[in-house]
Automatic annotation (TrEMBL):
Name of the protein in its database record: Polymerase beta nucleotidyltransferase domain-containing protein
Domain Polymerase beta nucleotidyltransferase intervals: 3-85
InterPro entries to which the protein is assigned, alphabetical: NT_sf (IPR043519), Polbeta (IPR041633), TA_antitoxin_MntA (IPR052930)
Superkingdom: Bacteria
One Pfam family cited in the UniProt record for this chain: Polbeta
Amino acid sequence: MAYFAGEENIQKVVLFGSRARGTARYNSDIDLCIDYTGKQKWKIKEDLDEIVGIYSCDVLFFDALNEAIRREIERDGKTIYEKSPS
C-alpha cells in the first residue's frame, strides 16, 4: 500500500479475478485495476512487476476497460487502496 500512497496520480486500486473471489491457486496471477490520472502507465506496470516478485501481475487501468471486464470488477473486485480526499 505504501507504493500506491506514494504515487500521487493513483486514486484507487482494485484487486479482481481469482484472488478477489477467493478461488486462487498457488500459481494464480495478481489482477489489479488502477484508477490512474498520470501519463506513465508503463512505469506503474514496471514497478508493480518488480514489487510482486515471483507472481505474475496483470495491471489494467479504469480508463481503458471494456464493458465485460468493468462488470467483472464491479461484481467481484475488492478495493485495496483508495486515496483520501484532500
